[in-house]
Amino acid sequence: MSDAEWAIVRDLLPAPGWLAGRGGRPEGYCHRQMIDAVRHLVDNGIKWRAMPADFPPRPRVYAFFARWRDAWLVAKLHDRLRGAVRAAEGRDQEASAAVVDSESVKADATVGFAPRGYDAWKKINGRKRHLLTDTLGLLLDVLVTPASTTDRTPPTSCCPQQASACRG
Length: 168
Prior knowledge:
The protein is α+β, with helices and mostly antiparallel strands and 168 residues long. The chain has 5 helices and 4 strands, in the order ααααββββα. Residues 1-78 form the Insertion element IS402-like domain.
């Protein structure tokens, strides 16, 4: 991670409990190392157990990842970066218009019956991914449904941060 990227990410990370006066002992690893480890896992598509020895121990990295996931850190970071890109383009940080599209994709045999469906129009047994982007093509939201879901059917669930927008 470059220094410029770290400057953007650092302010978004939650403060450790011991720094916020909630007790606990100081953390033994730098947050930047933890983010680098998670980025390495995602970039290379490896399993947690295959993490190289250059990074902190796997259980510690996973504990940080789980804490950040539960705090919706990735969604907040994505929203902040999208706002910065929109501001650089001379637009408002919040999108006023959006584009919706969906695509049916085949599901692997290991995918259970419940999240699958049959799209009779495209003759695909699998899932359908719905994407919501702004007019610049930047991602706003994603929803995965069984392929049998029609595009006219309103979503039954979406990101909890935008649940009020989905309910209308």
